Amino acid sequence: MGNEDINLAPNATGIDRIDTSSDEALRLWAGRLNATADQIRQAVSEVGDRASDVELHLKGSRSTTNDDRINATR
């Protein structure tokens, strides 16, 4: 299924915008970004509704630093 087949943000201003008031959009973006609807809502509140910004935010919040890995082994 291509992006053109999914109405991801019916009330937003573009295809790469996430409409947090739409349960369907949240469900689709959550699946696409491997996150929960609550994580999507939180990310949108922090970085805005642009999907690429939300994706980067989610990836950054899930990543670990080298310091995190070193501290975990101590």
From TrEMBL:
Residues 55-74 are annotated as: Disordered. This is Uncharacterized protein DUF3606. Residues 65-74 have a biased composition (Basic and acidic residues).
